Amino acid sequence: MSRSSYLFTSESVSEGHPDKVCDRISDAVLDLYLSADPYARVACETLTTTNRVVLAGEVRGPASITKDKIEETARAAVKAIGYEQEGFHWKNAQVDVLLHAQSADIAMGVDSAGNKDEGAGDQGIMFGYACRETDVLMPAPIIYSHRILSRMAEDRHSGKRPEFEPDAKSQVTLKYEGGKPVGVTSVVVSTQHKADVSQKELRELVRAYVQEVLPKGWFPPEEEFYVNPTGNFVIGGPDGDAGLTGRKIIVDTYGGAAPHGGGAFSGKDPTKVDRSAAYAARYLAKNVVAADLADRYTIQLAYAIGVSKPLSIYVDLHGTGKADEAAIERALEKAMDLSPRGIREHLKLNRPIYARTSSYGHFGRTPDKDGGFSWEATDLADKIKKEI
Predict the structure, then answer these.
(1) Is residue 200 within 8 Å of residue 220, measured between CB atoms?
(2) 260 carries an active-site annotation
(3) β-pair partners for 40
């Protein structure tokens, strides 16, 4: 029997966290390629350290995307985050572009030819999840963790809070009773700051954002509200710790409240099912819950490189379903083409919409008018219901 009363914690990191800087750069390079050619192939990995940015991986796209343009894009991404520090500056950092042409062996498996449809860009398993804990059908701990940092970043960018620097982390622990969140037991926020800001002053600045984001009456006990628990946090970002693309996959998804298949998202074009099928899985999960077929829902999809159809579809309603799991599995196959091509076309993923996904979560966001976060729409709910 599953537990109904427990504590659960999720964390988030800001756009200025070293790993998120890398995610942002990798996705900005992806957007650069997709702007020039919607069917470009990109697998871009980024490493950052003190005043150094290294890009590696493989691409297939127009010759107009030169190394100079890629370097310019990387610098613009760092500037947009707000890094103008001695140890990491968008203008002064050395940028090494080591991208090379996509492997012909991979291309052969992925490309459509003759009677062969486009295949998955790699093998792997992907999970999708949705629940009724928040207005965006996401687990509450990760959503509150994201929103605290997102609001702090908004005011840093606007100039309202010049005390904050780009690097920050948050962590929220919720108490569950009867399987539902009823309050917050602790909050941790660590934020990089200007050298002349005292820890006492910083604590009160951060308090306002936590109070704003959490439901009324959910602020934790004072002794469980931690701000920069190590003390000073002036040296941060890639100058304080090296960063790598794809190292915050749990932050990107469900905060540990649901399984993750293991693959990272950022820097990958939508032929890579690590990304596109994970988006499709979230889309299906959210629509099943929006259709009132379950209060909590997990789906797993599995793919093989070069093969277009999913190898398996598995659904778990966690005892909250209003329909049979097998019936929902059959309905989903009818409601959406889950081949790599079908996913790309249904969610319109061949667009430069990815840099914005690189921080504060790929899920639980509002769909944009230009197609960003299309997987967060609930336009498939009625169709799934009819299939059931």
Answers:
(1) no
(2) no
(3) none
pLDDT, position 105: 56
370 is catalytic: no
Tell me if residue 58 is catalytic.
yes
Catalytic residue among 24, 60, 268, 356: 268
Does the active-site annotation cover 15? no
Q: What is the DSSP string of 158-196?
A: HTS-TTEEEEEEEEEEEEEETTEEEEEEEEEEEEEE-TT
**d(C-alpha 92, C-alpha 328), whole Å:** 54
Q: Is it the case that residue 116 has pLDDT exceeding 50?
A: no
How does DSSP classify residue 92? T
User: Catalytic residue among 19, 252, 295, 316, which?
Assistant: 19
Catalytic residue among 56, 76, 80, 242: 242
Listing DSSP states for 253-296 in one string gives TTTTSS---S---TTB-TTSHHHHHHHHHHHHHHHHHHTTS-SE
For the question of residue 242 being annotated catalytic, the response is yes
Helices and strands: H and E segment counts in the chain: 11, 13
Is 45 an active-site residue? yes
Letter for the amino acid at 147? R
Residues 6+ positions from 274 with CB-CB distance below 8 Å: 121, 122, 124, 126, 261, 263, 264, 265, 268
Provide φ and ψ at 73, rounded to 5°. Answer: -65, -40
Clarify whether 296 is annotated catalytic: no
Q: Please say if 241 is a catalytic residue.
A: yes
Question: Is 193 considered catalytic here?
Answer: no
Q: One of 69, 247, 330, 348 is an active-site residue; which one?
A: 247
Q: Is 268 a catalytic residue?
A: yes
Q: Which residue has the higher pLDDT, 326 or 112?
A: 326
**Residue 21, both tokens:** 């800087």
Is 369 among the residues known to form the active site? Answer: no
Exposure of 388 in the CB half-sphere (CA atoms within 13 A): 21
- pLDDT, tens digit, 9 for 90 and up, residues 250-260: 999 999 999 99
> Which backbone phi and psi does 21 adopt, to 5 degrees?
-60, -45
pLDDT band of 308, cuts 50, 70, 90: confident
User: How confident is the prediction for the chain on average, in pLDDT?
Assistant: 94
Of the residues 17, 41, 75, 362, only one is catalytic, namely 17
**Candidate list 88, 127, 164, 233, residue with the active-site label:** 233
132 among known catalytic residues: no
Give the model confidence (pLDDT) of 82-99 as tens digits. Answer: 999 999 999 999 999 999
